[in-house]
Design brief:
48% helix; alpha+beta; five-stranded antiparallel beta sheet
Length: 217
């Protein structure tokens, strides 16, 4: 006679009280990663609209990229570009971009003027700094929320073009002030002549009086 097999599932052992407490704690307490993500999400709602959000993994374009851009882009006025680099003994020195040799160091002679790119501190367009390693400013490529070099150059040239109008207005105001001063000087001179004439008349009257007294005596 065959023995009937039981088909009921085997019951798993009950978890220990320690395992139950650990599981309950994991459910209640978020992980550090979850807490950081929740804090970042909350902070993003409080961020001002005009403050750019730096993308994950974003980095400032290095000086080597700026050099390549200036050498290869014909639209950039390279003759107006200046490089500020750090000398180990003299501090920061400025030189015109075209006065430096940007070829590979292995191909340079002992008379070539070249600088290591890691010593570059900033690039300037005329007097305007457009790339600065110290302040993380990149107005060449626009990384880290900066502007692009063509826009910066156009704005700078527009400001220079507007400067003569301001100087002309200032010269006009100075001319008006000069005319006012001259008119005041003329008026003061006329007043002085009138005072002298009055003094002369007063002296003549006194002389007549003195002559009268002398005739009576």
């Amino acid at each position: 006679m065959a023995t009937e097999m039981s088909s009921s599932p085997v019951a798993s052992p009950a978890p220990s009280p320690r395992s139950q407490r650990r599981a309950a704690a994991e459910v209640r307490k978020p992980s550090k990663k979850q807490a950081a993500k929740a804090a970042a999400l909350a902070a993003s709602h409080l961020r001002p609209v005009d403050v750019p959000i730096k993308a994950k993994g974003a980095a400032m374009r290095p000086a080597d990229d700026v050099v390549k851009r200036l050498r290869s882009d014909p639209s950039v006025p390279v003759a107006d570009m200046i490089v500020g680099y750090e000398d180990r003994f003299l501090g920061i020195i400025e030189k015109a971009f075209l006065d430096l040799n940007w070829a590979e160091f292995s191909s340079l002679s002992h008379v070539s003027v070249a600088i290591p790119k890691h010593r570059i501190v900033y690039f300037k367009y005329r007097t305007l700094i457009v790339w600065d390693r110290r302040t993380k400013l990149d107005n060449v490529f626009g990384s880290l929320g900066g502007s692009r070099l063509p826009d910066v150059i156009a704005a700078h040239q527009a400001a220079i073009a507007a400067a003569p109008d301001a100087n002309a207005d200032e010269e006009h105001d100075n001319a008006d002030e000069t005319q006012d001063v001259a008119a005041a000087a003329v008026a003061a001179h006329d007043d002085g002549e009138e005072v002298e004439e009055e003094e002369d008349e007063w002296e003549d009257d006194n002389d007549d009086v003195d002559d009268g007294f002398a005739g009576e005596l």
